[in-house]
Amino acid sequence: MTLVSSDPVGDVEREIGLLLRRAQASSERIARKVHPDLDSGAYPLLVRIGIRPGLRASELAAHIGIGRGTMSRQLARLEELGLIERTTDPDDARGQLLRVTPEGAERLARARGARAQFLREALEGWDADDVSSFAVQLGRFNADVLTRWAEVKGTGQEPSSGDGAGPT
Fold first, then answer.
1. Can you tell me the distance from the alpha carbon of 27 to that of 33, in angstroms, rounded to the nearest whole number?
2. Who contacts 71 (Cβ-Cβ below 8 Å, separation ≥6)?
3. What 3-state DSSP class applies to 103?
4. In the 8-state DSSP scheme, what is residue 159?
5. Can you give the pLDDT of all 168 residues of the chain as single tens digits?
6. Are 8 and 20 a contacting pair, CB within 8 Å?
7. Residues 43, 115: Cα–Cα separation, whole Å
8. What one-character-per-residue DSSP string does 34-63 give?
9. Are 115 and 30 in contact (CB under 8 A)?
10. Contact between residue 61 and residue 48 where contact means Cβ atoms under 8 Å apart
11. What are the angstrom distances between the C-alpha of 68 and each of 36, 56, 73, 158?
12. What is the DSSP letter of 157?
């Protein structure tokens, strides 16, 4: 689809809104593929822990952009479901390191595989260079939104419609 508009930022905002609504619906299905009782909000946490074993909860909260209370509840639920485990940080007994359990890793790999296959199929009509370029631009966009979100958050202002909905 080619957008022809005199407001490209408005086009971006509209397309991102649509993508976020679809992603939310998809996240709920993907989370249930990992575990029938997994909340869709916990899925990104599980993915990040899988990517960075030994991550501390505070680092995870900062990366995802959620508060410590929410983080604590989500981690407790992931642990209760047997998807992660916490170990004492050998460098700081007050801290805990997070790891995906073997069961969690297996379930996560299946769900991520299904999501990757879906994306491969959705992008199969694209040229490989276009897919690569899209990935680079999307990464750049995510980094810039995160930077802007941190700036806005530091001022205590609420983001305006042009500032995005927070870190994703």
1. 10
2. 45, 57, 60, 61, 64
3. helix
4. P
5. 565 678 999 999 999 999 999 888 888 888 888 999 998 888 889 999 999 999 998 889 888 878 888 888 999 999 999 999 999 988 888 888 999 999 999 999 999 998 899 999 999 999 999 999 999 999 999 899 988 988 887 765 555 544 334 443
6. no
7. 12
8. H-TT--GGGHHHHHHHHHSTTEEHHHHHHH
9. yes
10. no
11. 25, 12, 9, 20
12. P
- Does residue 54 contact residue 97 with C-beta atoms inside 8 Å? yes
CA 67 to chain centre: 15
The number of C-alpha atoms within 13 Å of 153 and in the hemisphere containing its C-beta is 14
Rounded distance, CA 42 to CA 148, Å?
Answer: 24
Q: Map residue 156 onto helix, strand or coil.
A: coil
Strands (E), 28-136: 55-56, 84-89, 92-100
Q: Token digits for 113?
A: 């595989």
Take residue 82 and report the two structure tokens written for it. Answer: 């047997």
